[in-house]
Structure prediction request, 672 residues.
Amino acid sequence: MNRMHKNVIGTGWMCLLLLCAAVGRAQQPSNDLRAGYDPSRETNLVGTVSSFTANSETGPLGAHVAVQTPSGIVDVHVGTAKFLELNHLTLNAGDNVRIIGESFTNGGNSIFLARIIQKGTVAVAVRSPRGIPLWLGGGRALSGQEKKSRGGAQ
Amino acid sequence: MSRQVPLVSVLALALLCAACGGGGGGISGTPAPPPTTGPYSAASLNGNYAFTMTGQDSGGFFARVGSFSANGAGAIMGGVEDVNSGAIGTAILPFSGGSYSISSNGKGTLNLTNQTGTLQFTIVMTSSTSGLLTQVDGSASASGNFTLQTPSSFSLPNINGSYVFDFSGQDPNGVPESLVGQFTANGGVGGSGVLDDNDGAVPSGPQPFASSSFALDSTFGATFGRGIANIAGINFAFYMVNGNKIKFMETGFPSLVVGDATAQTGTIPTTTAGFSGNFVTVMAGASLSGSDVRGGRFTLTGGNVTNIQMDDDSSSNSGSGNSNAFMIPNGTISAATYTIDTTVPGSGRGTVQFTDSKLGTFSFIFYLISPTQAVIQDNSAGIVSDGSMLAQTAGPFTTGGAAGNWAFSFVGQSVNSTTGGFGEEDYLGQYTQTSSGSISGSVDFTELSAPAVATNLAITGSMTVQGDGTGRNGYSVKVNSSPSATLNFSAYFIDANTFFVVGTDTHRTITGTVIRNF
Prediction:
């Protein structure tokens, strides 16, 4: 059990360390999503946002961002728009981003699953180290730090 | 997370929840037809009821466990709940009163008032002692169940013997987590136990723990069965249904796992050879891409797993849409085996696994509550998920044999066709099925992707039993909202009175339980 509360919203320098650790790993053939997330296969995607789609028509469900990289456009699944908003991260066309994650095949398509997204000095973790979504709980982990009453009967 | 009725999905579906705000306005549509005459009335809710709910509020994933007292005549006389919410943290909130109504078909309303306001639910009775409920006041989307308590059992000596538990939710870092296992309690004096923790797709394997502790609340314990406990180092509030069933919720915000513990009964098999049967399972949780639900049936005999038919409805399944359930087998099945774990004798722990040549290896852990009931945890690669594994009894099943009156709860995520929004949805309803399989009834639901709440809308649909009915069956429910929405499922019968469903639509990941209610 990993029941120590960590600050999953990494500061810029912390994430830069993580990003640097991933730099230079050779691109490997993509696994099927069902193979699971393998931290040793993580890569560092650097590029410019060409579009952001809050609710994509292609899987996985949720928000996708198209990132222009030197080798072409990469479809990146970034969780949900609501979770990014809760973490004060907006992704717009023209933004320069660094994304740690892993590339998979999914139903014949290629998809890059983001684990950490960095724009400027803001970095947001959207998946656990084993690739499991952090957005499913909404703002709970965040609420531990920014808890406030937002109305409604309990 | 088995319950007295074999409802497992709602608590596990904690992991399905998406990050969304509260609900919004109403949804128009065709009003439900007059309810079918049945045996229920306000008198059907009489006594103290323990309840559990999970869902999404303005702070994200949240849960509540508690107890309310109904007087059999439409009034709530009191109660108390524990809440663990991103919006407020943890709180103990007494109910000062409230009201309820129940139609003859078992469907009704429940209002519980506390210092924060009045919670509004719709309910449906599944028996004379239990029911399902969903929140419809727009401040949250949440579902759960309630069960008649036995106040005379509210004492520590009645927390005695071996219990199997299934707790699911998320760890302090927001990572989906499932804990299944067994603990012993000697008259409320904590004993040892063993658990399997799948925390963020990192399965622990069997982890012994040395002690647990239980204490009844001096204020709410005697009346409502409330207490506090520590199991494997995790602090919980609990509510006793009776000595055999206890509802738990973690109180260590921001982490939150929630679920039931059930006393082990019967002779728990200690060898693989001593355990066999046909089983139906349903699980809900998370995969790499979002939510994931799985359900199906298989046969366990002599260490081999056969007759596998399952559905896997995942956010990742794409094709041309966002979500299409995979049917299993999809390729060739191999290495299909199960074991009873002899390294933790008497715990009821076992494993099931098989490999599909196209979909990979599926790996599960179970703990037996009895020779015919278990909690199950999915330890397949990239999955955090859990639920129930129940012996399939009776059968063959027929469409005509399924005629009658049914209550249902569906929980999932969807992309709204009008707004394009994405979020949790909770459905609760009741219908009559004819001998030809036609369905007609009513539904209430909250859909965060709209966002909206709808009550008393008409539903139609169909049940189409395939073959002898022991495998995958066709099932659909059309919600006559404007615009209408049809939910398609695979249905797996547990017995003549209960079946699990797994969604098969694009743009929706959903599962649920359907129970004959009269």
